[in-house]
Amino acid sequence: MSPQKLLSSLFFLLGCIAYSQEFDADIQLRPRFEYRNGYKNLLKENESPTSFISQRSRLNINFKKENLVTKLSLQNIRTWGEVPTIATNDKNGIQVYEAWAQYAFDSKWSARLGRQIISYDNQRIFGAIDWLQQGQSHDAAVVKFENKNTNLDIGFALNASAENLVAPAVAYTTTYKNMQYAHYNFARNNLNMSLLFLNTAYEYSDAANDIKLDYKQTFGTFITYKKTKWNTDLSLYQQTGKSNGNTLNALNAAINFNYKLTNNLQATIGYEYLSGKDQDDSNSKLRSFTPLFGTNHAFNGLMDYFYVGNHINNVGLKDAYLKLSYNAQKWQFALSPHLFHAAAKVLDESSTKMNSNLGSEIDFTTSFKVQKDILVQAGYSQFFATKTLERLKSAPDSKTNNWCWIMVNINPKIFSSK
What we know:
The protein has helices at 3-15, 387-392; strands at residues 22-37, 50-65, 68-79, 95-104, 109-116, 138-146, 150-158, 178-188, 191-205, 211-226, 230-243, 246-260, 265-274, 317-328, 331-341, 357-371, 374-385, 401-410, 413-417. The chain is mainly β.
């Protein structure tokens, strides 16, 4: 979409204000500097660190009239310098991040259609992945039921590469082919419980180049219990079905215990298990759990060594961690060490079982609220790898691995009318 068309659309929407009940618009500008010295993968001997600045520029427009609610979110994602200082075209252009309409049939039932964020619970299975500058959203239809203590969402999606006249000759691999899910939430007093069933279908080409469709099921629960000074959460998910013609049976379990030591200081201790497959297991059955659409950056260390575009269909993971967070007026600080182990057997070059210890990571983050619409955040992470992880990452004799970043989030509301 050209800037001229974007401005024309915006002015048209502004012209509708006189006929609307609620209308608001906000912008987000989020530049982020990163120094990557072994981020997401171990730095090898012949590799050097790098640094860059990326930026998200997003416009959000919200409109509500009677039983109808709509949202349009447009964004541009760029790396500083990828477009010349004198340019007629932008490299990435304008992307539609969200474009949905929701209609309420009555006080309890509604339906939402279009490009939308799907996010539930702690975002382990479904999340917005807000850390990514581009975020994550789905083309879907979601029927919603909301009552005093219960919520039920039933979602559907069907994806294609284009408006085809006949079935394509190649498999659709952009994302899942179709999806159906149900998410139920119940809350009463100090207890909050969610149940999720997710069915996703993926196309692939078999050995004869025939297009096949496999269905994968992910189902489980997320439970939280809160008291005055402490709270705990437990999650348990299983995956079954098939993937690329192979039978799947995998497990994910996690538990966290949080305690408020003082008004400003909180401590969290937690453990997560994601099943994997032994490297000497010749059976075609898959045993590795995949957190499909989760905000995986928020789990298993901020350096994203696991399940952020990597470690899929691998030996799994055991993650034991501690988090200390401290709030003081406009400042927030957090320190979180992790201890990682493989959940399945790892073999060396001679097919001998290696130690399951993958290494450790320590993450430090801080934020400062400059004013209502401006937040400055920063972080530093260090990873200490073992020979076992070097074996998994194909990075023998890796260097010191660390990562730091600074991000400014500017998010003012530019218009509001009721």
